[in-house]
Structure formats: structure tokens, C-alpha cells
Specification:
The structure holds two protein chains of two kinds. By secondary structure, chain A is of the alpha/beta class. In chain A, 31% of the residues lie in helices and 32% in strands. Chain A is globular, with a radius of gyration of 18 Å. The mean pLDDT of chain A is 87. By secondary structure, chain B is of the alpha+beta class. In chain B, helix 2 crosses helix 9. About 23% of the residues of chain B have low confidence. Classes of the chains: A alpha/beta, B alpha+beta.
Chain lengths: 249, 410
């Protein structure tokens, strides 16, 4: 329990489509340790994004239990919102606010958390330097609007926004899905660096096996809401594959 | 999030959706300016009518009466204690049954101006039955119909009674004496009958006449008369200000007294104006409803447009309350700016209409609009309040947007 960031016990997510019940997640049980680079892989509609949203406190479960940092996730709206403040999100489509400049976009989580103006300024500049978006504090690029940035730059800004609050975990939903191969590599290297240097756990959802072997220490393969296999990686190679039944990993 | 952060966010949103914002502003502006113009018209008509009714009145009199009980001096005092003594120009206790007792320089002046002089400072002789003249005293004629009825001051009355007592004490040769008070007119002496005693009392800077109703010949004077125990059938309150008259009237009405004044006529006019006012408020309500719909429609389209951004903010940890506040603050800013602009525009319009009306000869002395500051503030605050209420459902709807839904929409 000590080194576990997340513990999931028989998590189910059922949605009602008219009179039909649909199992999005079916008896999911696994855990993630601190500083893991954890991968979730699966085909479209397998339930990997739903699982990520649940881990990030954006969605609720139908049954089962989830513990984060030894605390059970609360289902009340307000507490879920406060829980999300300690998590960094990275999305495939960047999810930047178009009418706010780079600075304001990165500062948004801190403003929501009611931090002082001076602290916000310092943290935002540090985050943007850490993701190599700006070189120093005098760089005027922080006043650019997102529409003037390239895909890779937008994702760097999104990563800066994810790390600005010093979260324990970053949840990345196909973060390289909209990027070319060069930018993909750069972003993955950046995420690895954040994982190692800043000791932030990263959970990445992808359908690309290469990404898993390039970055992850552990990954799960999901199909129809069930964990099929669990992979362990060493030096970019799969070191162990565990076939999972629905009941156990 | 702090208020400045919300403000910054709202300003960014306003910049982003200029067309929506301008349309919303115009809607509120029109509603508010219509409301203020109609309200000003309602107040203006009322004031003009009252001015017309009281055009030639310099002083307003409130006649305070009560059919069941008489008015006591302490009631007069209790009204004074309501801090209205400064607004009272004059107070006159009145023996209404006989006459109005007037002894006031301004009133004299006013009456003299109109060539009416009901006050006579006349001399009266007191004669013994052997017609020896004893003294000369002053009295006031107070009843034009019965010229031999007089009212005298308490000092004069004391003089008369002392003479009477003196004559009777001496009892000249056990003969009976009779005192006859006569009014010395130009040609002849008319015997008079004292029917009233007035005591002059300085009261809060004004002069009050405390009058005792009497009706007897001097020979029948009662022994013990205490003017402080005297009660009256009517008080006349005289003031220069109509609003003060309303305050005094309210004070007396609360005490259960009946009042008669020009305000009764004004009340009748106000009853008619009330119907007009109801009509104006109906128009105001329609304008407010239009403004509410305007705000709801604008905010709804605003929320639809901003779904993605709401989702992002929620994924970053924004609470429902914080999301709601953005939209509520947006409507507060828009309604505040819109209503202030509405006030300015209505003020300009009212003045333009005033200038146009002044060109007509028969309308030049009439001001149909009264720009009442209190009602303007009321309209502005009401508009802001209505905007907040109107924005609440939409703001709640915005706060209920799930971040997952908005992200899946990408």
C-alpha cells in the first residue's frame, strides 16, 4: 500500500443506453505505483479513455473502489473538482482556451486554486521553461495566442499547464495523437524527463505499442472494458506478460 | 478564483463575443430607457397636476377635526414632538363654531392685501349702571354675523373680572351693579357679549391661541377658569410646504383625527394617476420580461459557444460555483453597463422632448417629465437583480456541463 498511488478494486462502469445496459469497464482491478510511467492500451471503444477519466476524477464509477494516495475517491461534485486540481491532464486535441494567451492558459489551474499573482507568475514561467517553450523569463512568447502556435508547441503549453500545479500524477490521453513523428518523439522525451526529474507519475492512454515500449514501465491492455494482459517493460522491451482473467491481474 | 480573475475572464469573453454582447447591451439599454422615460412621465404628470391645483396657494392649511372627541392641547404637543416644528408655519386652535381667531402679522398682511380686515382692535367701555366710565380695554371682533359677540384676551378678561369683583365687593349702598361691555363704534356704543377668552402662548417659535369657549354676560362670569384645561373643536395647521402638510396630516390621521386640506383634492387626482401608473408599470414589466428573455437567449447561446472552455475549466478543477459565477458576473456587467447607458439615453431624450414642448405656447409652462433619481436607481438595481435571476438557470446549466462530454465532442 505504501508506494501505491492508485489502487482499483473491481471497478465497473455501466451506462444505460435506452433500456440496454452497457458495461464500459468490467471488474477492473490493478494498481499504479508512485513515479510509474503507466500505459493503457486498447482499441477504440475499449474503455481506456473512460478509465483515464475515472482516474482523473472526471467520471464516476458504477461499483467497486478506487483509492488514490490511500484515500478513496469521493463522488461529490465539489470534492471531485478539488481532486482534479492535484492532477495534470494532457489531451490529444491540447484543450487550450483559444482566446487566452499562453500565460493565461498555463495560469488557469493556479487561478482556479486561488494562488497569489506573484506565485502564479513564477510558477507559470518555470513550467514554460521546463517544457522548453521559453528560454528565459523575458521571453515574449508567453503572450502569444494558441492559434499562432504549432501542434508541438501547443502540446508543450498543455504539458506546462499540466505540471504548473506540481501534481502527483499526469494523465495523458493520446498526447501525441495529433502530432507528427518528430514532435511525437520530442513530447515523449519531455514526458519521460518530467517523470524522472520531477518525480511525477504519468499514466498514458495510447493505441500505439511503440509509445509503450519507448516510455512505460508497466502497461495494461484493455478490450471491451476488461484487462486482457499486463505488460512489464525493461530497457524498452517487454520483460513480462501476464495474462489476466476478469477476476485477477 | 478572485473577483479580478472572474472579471478578466468575463472581459476576455466579451471581447470574444462582441456581437452577442452588443445585442445584449442594446436590449437592456432600450428596456431601461423606456422604463425611465415612462416613470419620468408618470411622476411629471403627477407633479404638474399638483402644481396646477396649488398654483395660487402660498400657504397650505390643514384643518384637523374629530367628530367624536375634541382635540386636546397634548395632541398638538405630541405632533410637535415628531420633529416637525420647523415645518409648521403657524398653528391656530380654532373655535370653529364661531369664528377663526386670527392674530398674526403675516395673516394680517395677506388679508389686508386682499382688502379684507376681519380683525378689529377696538375699545370697550365698562360702565356701571350709573354710567361712570371705569376703564378701556381691547378686544377682538370675531363674529361678523353677530357684532355684539366678542372674544377677549385673558389679560383683558382678568381686568374685567377684577373690576366686576371690585364693584361687587364695595357693594355701593347695597345697590346691584351691572357691567355692560360695549363696543364703541364710530357713531354709537353697542353692548357686547363675551363669548370667548384667548390666551396667547408662545409655542416652539410660533404663536398659539388657546381659546376658551364662553357665552355669557359679564355678570355671569364663572369664578374658576383654567385655560390649560381647555379643549378645542379644530386646529388649523398652516405651512408653506405641501410635503410638510402631508407629514402633519399623516401624524394626525394616525391619531384618529379627520383632516381637511387641499391634499384631499390631490388625493383624488392621484387616484386617477394611479391607473395611469399601473399602465406604465405594465409597460415596464413587459420591457423587463423582454430584457429577461434577451439575457436568457444571449447567455444560452454564450454557454453553447463556450461548452468546450467550460469543460476545460472543469477538468482543471473549477467547481460548479466558479463556473456559475463567470456567467452571473457576465450578466451583472452587461446589465450594469446597459442600464447606465439606458439612464443616459433616457435623460437625453427627456430633455429633447422638453425643448420641443417648450416651443408650443400652451405647453411651455408644463413640465411633463420629472427625472426622479430614486426611481432611476430603483430601475437600475431592479435590472441588475433581474439579470442575475435570469442568468441563474443558464449559469447552473453551464456548471452542469460534463468535461468528458465536451472533450468527446472534439
Amino acid at each position: 500500500m505504501k508506494n501505491k498511488l492508485y489502487i482499483l478494486n473491481n471497478v465497473n462502469k455501466i451506462i444505460h443506453d435506452g433500456n440496454k445496459k452497457k458495461h464500459i469497464l468490467n471488474n477492473i482491478s490493478f494498481d499504479i505505483e508512485f513515479n510509474d510511467f503507466f500505459g493503457i492500451i486498447g482499441d477504440s471503444g475499449a474503455g481506456k479513455s473512460t478509465l483515464l477519466h475515472i482516474l482523473g476524477g472526471m467520471d464516476t464509477i458504477s461499483s467497486g473502489k478506487i483509492f488514490c494516495n490511500n484515500k478513496e475517491l469521493n463522488k461529490t461534485k465539489n470534492k471531485m473538482a478539488h481532486f482534479r486540481r492535484n492532477i495534470g491532464f494532457i489531451f490529444q486535441s491540447f484543450q487550450l482556451i483559444n482566446h487566452l494567451n499562453v500565460y493565461s492558459n498555463v495560469a488557469a489551474p493556479l487561478i482556479i486554486s486561488k494562488l497569489d499573482k506573484q506565485k502564479i507568475e513564477k510558477k507559470v514561467q518555470n513550467a514554460l521553461i521546463n517544457v522548453n517553450f521559453i528560454k528565459d523569463r523575458k521571453d515574449r512568447r508567453i503572450y502569444q495566442l494558441p492559434k499562432t502556435l504549432s501542434g508541438g508547441e501547443k502540446q508543450r503549453v498543455a504539458i506546462a499547464r499540466a505540471i504548473v500545479n506540481n501534481p502527483k500524477v499526469i494523465l495523458a490521453d493520446e498526447p501525441t495523437g495529433s502530432l507528427d513523428s518528430k514532435n511525437t518523439n520530442n513530447i515523449l522525451e519531455l514526458l519521460k524527463l518530467i517523470n524522472k526529474k520531477m518525480k511525477i507519475t504519468i499514466i498514458i492512454v495510447t493505441h500505439d505499442n511503440k509509445i509503450l515500449s519507448q516510455c512505460c514501465s508497466k502497461a495494461i491492455y484493455i478490450e471491451d472494458g476488461k484487462i486482457i494482459e499486463t505488460y512489464e517493460y525493461k530497457n524498452g522491451q517487454v520483460s513480462n506478460i501476464i495474462q489476466n482473467s476478469t477476476e485477477e491481474i | 478564483m478572485k473577483i479580478e480573475d472572474y472579471t478578466k475572464w468575463v472581459i476576455d469573453e466579451i471581447k470574444e463575443s462582441k456581437v452577442y454582447t452588443i445585442l445584449n447591451l442594446i436590449g437592456i439599454l432600450i428596456s431601461v430607457s423606456i422604463c425611465i422615460m415612462f416613470l419620468s412621465l408618470a411622476f411629471g404628470i403627477e407633479e404638474t397636476t399638483i402644481n396646477k391645483l396649488t398654483k395660487d396657494m402660498n400657504l397650505f392649511t390643514l384643518k384637523v377635526t374629530n367628530g367624536k372627541k375634541q382635540i386636546y392641547y397634548q395632541d398638538l404637543n405630541s405632533v410637535y414632538n415628531k420633529k416637525i416644528d420647523k415645518i409648521i408655519y403657524d398653528i391656530r386652535p380654532v373655535l370653529e363654531k364661531y369664528a377663526i381667531l386670527s392674530y398674526n402679522s403675516i395673516e394680517n398682511y395677506k388679508l389686508k392685501k386682499n382688502n379684507i380686515l376681519p380683525i378689529y382692535l377696538e375699545s370697550y367701555k365698562i360702565k356701571k349702571n350709573n354710567s361712570i366710565e371705569l376703564d378701556i380695554i381691547n378686544g377682538h371682533l370675531f363674529n361678523n354675523q353677530n357684532e355684539n359677540s366678542i372674544i377677549v384676551s385673558d389679560i383683558t378678561f382678568k381686568k374685567i373680572t377684577s373690576i366686576y369683583k371690585e364693584i361687587n365687593r364695595k357693594n355701593f349702598n347695597k345697590k346691584k351693579f351691572k357691567i355692560i361691555i360695549t363696543k364703541r363704534d364710530i357713531q354709537e356704543e353697542i353692548p357686547c357679549n363675551i363669548i370667548g377668552i384667548a390666551k396667547t402662548t408662545p409655542h416652539h417659535g410660533t404663536t398659539a391661541y388657546i381659546t376658551k369657549k364662553l357665552s355669557f354676560y359679564i355678570n355671569d362670569i364663572p369664578r374658576n377658569i383654567n385655560p390649560n384645561e381647555i379643549c378645542y373643536t379644530r386646529f388649523d395647521f398652516i405651512t408653506e410646504n405641501l410635503k410638510d402638510l402631508e407629514i402633519v396630516r399623516e401624524a394626525f390621521n394616525k391619531k384618529g383625527y379627520d383632516t381637511v386640506s387641499v391634499l384631499d383634492k390631490i388625493d383624488n387626482v392621484r387616484k386617477v394617476l394611479f391607473v395611469i401608473n399601473v399602465l406604465f408599470w405594465l409597460i415596464f414589466s413587459i420591457a423587463v420580461i423582454i430584457a429577461i428573455f434577451n439575457i436568457i437567449i444571449t447567455l444560452t447561446s454564450f454557454v453553447l459557444k463556450k461548452r468546450k472552455e467550460i469543460g476545460i475549466l472543469k477538468s482543471l478543477g473549477a467547481t460548479d460555483f466558479q463556473i456559475q459565477n463567470i456567467f452571473i458576473l457576465y450578466s451583472v456587467y452587461i446589465s450594469s453597463i446597459g442600464s447606465i447607458l439606458g439612464v443616459v439615453i433616457s435623460y437625453i431624450f427627456i430633455n429633447i422632448i422638453r425643448i420641443l414642448l417648450s416651443n408650443f405656447d400652451n405647453l411651455s409652462d408644463i413640465d411633463l417629465f420629472k427625472f426622479d433619481l430614486l426611481s432611476v436607481i430603483f430601475v437600475v438595481l431592479l435590472t441588475i437583480l433581474v439579470s442575475i435571476v435570469a442568468s441563474l438557470p443558464t449559469a447552473k446549466k453551464a456548471a452542469s456541463i460534463s468535461p468528458i462530454e465536451t472533450m468527446r465532442e472534439d
